[in-house]
Specification:
single chain; mainly beta; Neuraminidase; 5-stranded mixed β-sheet
Amino acid sequence: MAPTFPSTTAPFVLAGLLALAAAPSVAQSQPSPKAQTVASGLQNPWAVAFLPDGRFLVTERPGRLRVVNADGQVQPAVQGLPEVAAGGQGGLLDVITDSAFASNRTIYFCFSEPGKGTTNSTALARARLSDDLKQLQDMKVIFSQQPKVSSTAHFGCRIVERQVNGKPDGTLLLTLGERFSRRDDAQTLDNHHGKIVRVGKDGSVPKDNPFVGKAGALPEIWSYGHRNSQGATLAPDGSLWTHEHGARGGDEINRPQAGKNHGWPLVSFGVNYDGSTIGTGKSSAPGLEPPLHHWTPSIAPSGMAFLTSDRYGAAWKGNLFVGSLKFQYLDRIELKDGQVVAEHKLLEDLGQRIRDVRQGPDGLLYVLTDNANGRLIRLLHN
């Protein structure tokens, strides 16, 4: 039976205690960027998206969507959200704007959707943001993870608008956790637990999904064998990159591809919270996709973005940025030929859990800190 977690990283707190709170060996970054607070007073913010007029959309995990003005003023909650099963790690989670938002005002968001009794699952919805930014219109749930289970953990819930040859292909990719208590489901295709799914913007199933027409497989599945992915982004070449929480160690960066098995819980670089082995006790096996990178001990990663702008100089362009909830820093990751060659801790002086990181339309990086008085922060290079 799964424990009830008060927050997304409670398991990692236990893992940290068992590992004597050892921090990963990550180099310090000099000079450090200046953290400029854009807005404060946000309650456990989870995701930020950008509006064309310089304002922001921010989700709060308890179940509120906020508009934040360019001057930092936080507006009353946007109306029209569906019922949200807020509790534990569940709530209102990721949000993105459609690539054609300027003309269609469409947003997509994912959340923990209540079912019968105490059951719930991750769901993906679309809606139109009203012209006055106060209301969601024509809201429709376009995907619901199946089956729903009684759990407050491992919802996953990052959304990416897929691209092909540099252009949106009309589909969305959504990361889905294995709900903690159902981790073995990540290896079977008759459910959505521990999967990445791909659906059309109307919820339809793309005909070229890898398991369409396969007996016993749900057609929305894109890749499987995942644990709890809370970071997803497109690389400059348009490929999908994700990261996922391990247990006690074994957080991973992956590059999921159609139909591939990423191994959880058969293999892992970590161990269970009680110190016992996971699956085979090995970190790899034939036929299973190895991670590009892993963190042991776990950093509890959340949020993920590539920097494509020149705003911070040549040394940062092309770097990958990942938030650490557990150790409370922003990880700047240098890559060469698709491999991690160095990591640098940023924003340690904030002493706050980094929940999300995005590159804004202005080319600057923005992060959210996850606490009861969370902040939206803009990074300015010294």
